[in-house]
Amino acid sequence: MRGMGNMQGMMKQMQKMQKMQKQMQEAQESLNQQEFTGVSQSDMVKVTMTGERKVTAIEIKPEAVDPEDVELLQDLVMMAVNNALETVAQANDSTMGQFTKGLNIPGF
């Protein structure tokens, strides 16, 4: 009978893991549907992207456009994109971290 107890314990553990996997998948899908905005210095450029890191909008204030200084605009766009990526990463870490808390899994 001792083997039966182990088998039941393994089945419960598998069910628990399947439930957690489903919750993780739902949480990731929810994150992917959200939009995140990144901004450059002085909010001159705003970049909006999904949780899947796909850019959906770029807003550039007219005063950011200087034909004599295209490099500045390039830097502002880069800042806004990087800021949006950082925001997505933080949301992902915060949301998905609840599932990996206490687990010792390489890469998490």
From TrEMBL:
This is Nucleoid-associated protein NPA36_07815. Its main location: cytoplasm. Residues 26-37 have a biased composition (Polar residues). It comes from Granulicatella seriolae. Residues 1-25 have a biased composition (Low complexity). Residues 1-37 are annotated as: Disordered. Transmembrane segments: none annotated. Homodimer. It is found in: Cytoplasm, Nucleoid.
